[in-house]
Amino acid sequence: MKPNEVVPLLLTFNEAPNLPRTLGALGWAGRIVVVDSGSTDGTREILAADPRVEVLERRFDNHAAQWRFGFEQLRGTPWVLALDADFVVPGGFTAELEALGDAADYDGFEAAFTYVSLGQPLRGSILPPRLVLVRPQLVTVEQDGHAHRPRVPGKVGRLRERFHHDDRKPLSVWLAAQERYARLEAGKLLAARPAELPLTARLRRRGWITPWLVPLYVLFARGGILDGRAGWYYALQRGLAEALIALRLLEARAGHSARKETRNP
Questions:
Q1: pTM, entire model
Q2: Is the dihedral of CA 236, 120, 165, 112 positive or negative?
């Protein structure tokens, strides 16, 4: 696979703190397509300064719809590299592309991630591998709680090179996003049949286990305690994210109980 067969596709909304690193790691790309949701923080100016970038604007409704729109614009492209604006492509990526040959047996490739906290790469995280390199004419995308799930029908390979997840936006932005994510995730968990959920989701659905279990797992099982301040910061972030979901679950269940009492005095 040749680098000129791959077009990076990014979603952006107020990503000025992240874009210089993300675009800087795409020096090999001849064309970059960005779906922007109405940024107002300097994102558009950064994108306009790069002649390789083609900006498409779409009002945000959910992540899955944004990605579907982006992939639809690139149906004639052999391969699309799907990136969040805080993903940094590793330096060895193009060499690995060349080593893949024509990749005729594959419909996509997933990559593992190194999480970067306070500018420091961590030893481990709970960030799962993600499908990043796909044939756009084959990919489908579904909304799954606060996340989106891209899928391809055929064989999926695993890239050796690890991508970086390096979000440098202010903590206030992260907190606002997590509150929205918690509402969506709680709705998904309550709507699902527990038996159909994976173990981690069943634990999260209980509402009291994961706010303390996830930080302990990050610190001790994933080595975060050896990462010093950056490891503690990440562990506290994950614990707070789980606590927000737990609060949303408790709120929803309390509202359901109150409605039942009103109907059955």
A1: 0.90
A2: negative
